Amino acid sequence: MGLVDLLVVALISVLEVLLITGIGLSLALDRINLLGSTARHNLNNSGTDVSQLGETITFSSLVSLWFMPVNILLTFIIGSVFAWTLVKITKTPPQLQGLVIGCCSAGNLGNLLFIIIPAVCKESDSPFGDSSVCSTYGEAYASLSMALGAVYKWAYVYFVMRIYAHKSNAACTAIDDTNETQTFVEISYLQRAFQRIKNFTEKINLKMVFAPSTIAAIIEFIIGAVSPIRKLMIGDSAPLRVFDSSASLLGEATIPSMTLIVGANLHKGLKISGVSAWVIVGVIGMRYILMPLLGIGMVKAAHHFGSDSLYQFVLMLQYALSPAMTVGIIVQLFEAGESECSVIMLWT
Fold this sequence. Notes:
- Helix content is 76%, strand content 0%.
- By secondary structure, the chain is mainly alpha-helical.
- The two termini are 30 Å apart.
């Protein structure tokens, strides 16, 4: 397959995503308001298509995919390092530093993979072979990515952004009340560490970690990995196959729905905010240039473990995704930088 053919496949897939995303953005405009705040909230929390997981993931195949959780963790760590550098170079205000780190470290590991992979698979010149087989395995890989990403975002990104939120609040307190700041500084490091852990366990919303889509992925993992359950539900002769076919039917509607909601979530980004243009350019450079370049080396490492080309493609995509919508939710919890977050999301 030539370079031009590859570029055409990539271009068509991205254009499809952008067009449907643009429609979603239009439907969220105030004068249309078909995807208002309530509708967006409900769709954001709805289940994603994980029906292919049970069909493609067995216990042995799950073991062979061990590199994916490592790969995703590396994207978070590398992104955090790049973000810290960007914060120092651009002298990002304290109240936005956590936002920048969140945007650089956490990619959209769920929705966008479910959108991009089927679009690539259905192209006649797709490098991944038969369209139906490609889509089935691609969606299974995307489901695994989504489930792992949800855990990392709330166990890692939330914690990091919370630390920076505390630092920002401490800086504001120093301006308003010097005595209170002095007391804060005098607290030992160990006490502060325990307090942060306590605050983390008290404030983290487990409903966010175990969203319906994540729970559905866990159930599908169990169905696929446990042989007796798999024989009951998966296959043309399975006695409970109606449940699997119903899940597949429901899942087919989620991909276009998620594409629309990604666009609708960008609605607030149309408004003016105080985020620096250099910060936006920096986040774009980190997520779409530096991280993919490093990702090439990581995917080459995965190749030595015998992974197929579609699996390598998914691993590579994990380094080249726009910031996770979850970052916007975390920002809302801390009530700081919401408009700036929307602007960054829109441009990326």
